[in-house]
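Hi L.,

As promised, Mucolipin-2:
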Amino acid sequence: LTETALKEDLKFYFMNPCEKYRARHQIPWKLALQILKILMVTTQLIFFGLSNQLVVSFKEENTVAFKHLFLKGYSGVDEDDYSCSIYTQQEAYDSIFYVINQYKQLKNISLGTLGYGQDENEGSGLKICKQQYKKGTMLPSNDTLNIDVATETECILLKPQELASKKAELKLNSSFFNLEFYRLIQIEISFKLKGIALQTIHARELPDCYVFQNTITLNNRAHSGKIKIYFDSDTDIQECKDWHISGSILQKNTQYVLVFDGFVIISCLASLILCTRSIILALKLQKRFVNFFLEKYKRHVCHADRLEFINGWYVLVIISDMMTIIGSILKMEIKAKNLTSYDVCSILLGTSTLFVWVGVIRYLGYFQTYNVLILTMQASLPKVLRFCCCAGMIYLGYTFCGWIVLGPYHEKFEDLNTVAECLFSLVNGDDMFATFAQIQQKSMLVWLFSRLYLYSFISLFIYMILSLFIALITDSYDTIKKYQQSGFPVTDLHEFLKECGSVGYRKEQASMPFICCC
């Protein structure tokens, strides 16, 4: 009786939702809930993405506006990783005083809703700091240098209310602005501005209050005759302290969105409970089967058969549900203007939506045509991972070699991250000619080495490693197709289930567990 009950439970466990309904008229609640959840989570993500798009565009447009406002001679396009550059002492003085003058006239010249930032602890204003070496002498014509490498930093603060007074004029005419460029390292100008994003009102959302911490850096560390000017703007979203908006459309829209987010949380919580319950029941069934097999056949169940009971799709759904619940709570707080963690919320909601759509593959696997793809991915994954580990060692070797040898002569090899991205592009056949052509021919030895380096890397990875990578997947596909024609390898679990009688159990399905957990 115990053996018969176990066989019936095993048969029922490995059925798909349609077979379970035909066998015991059990309604597939999890399937219906997953379909509903896909629609709700995707809709939620679209609404959040449209709202987040307004935030991103407001930040980017303000950053561009600040560059045009405070950088003298800014062309509208950054030169490299810096905004612009200057080459004379007069240009350096003009750039500094231009920032001061623009900051002073900000309310009269700015098109945006900007104001001076107030800081109760440090005070608000324009802070100018210069970092330089301690005094020394330098005569390049005589190859003479006498300088103390220890640095000193001196700062001055110009408050908005003082800029029109005589006190500000005294500061501007002080010795602080007498720069000795041979020992000057950098000048940093920092100031805080506040703004309000009104465009969200047109999207029927409450406006956000922004704090822009702007920093302008005149970098003279190289002392090469070229001072690079960097502009950096850190944006912080804060809750507006005192606001009043006439009309009830915004409030109603906010309430509707919060109610919808509440339904998403409830559906994900129900899905989380059902999937957790299924995993617990599967582990109990696994334990019953292992104990029965040990008692009757006096041997242990193999590891592969144990994994048959662990449904990787349920694990994926549980992770997705947890991320959706946390992300939805953050979204509700952001919508109510109690939080401003857009980045954290975006990562949680975006990743959870990705997992939800990946989970759809499980139901496509019930069809033999789509099942081939899933089984091929599962069979090839271990071999592909081992192959990538070996190929990765060669890739890292080329990365370090290209960085140290070609870095001084090629902009794509200046740092490790750029080298890795460049080599990955070459593997995919992108930007090959530009990579070859941009190498500087200042050193014939390095130029010849670059040719040998690039030709060997492209030949090795495209013609050999990439071909082997594809061959591994092709071999797994051929193996799966052969198994579907002649039969899959039979394990102890499969033999045990064969004794249960003619029930719609498919070995193809039993061979696809745990793919997502890998």
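The beta strands are 84-86, 114-116, 126-139, 144-158, 184-197, 208-219, 227-238.

Thanks again for sending the construct details.

K.
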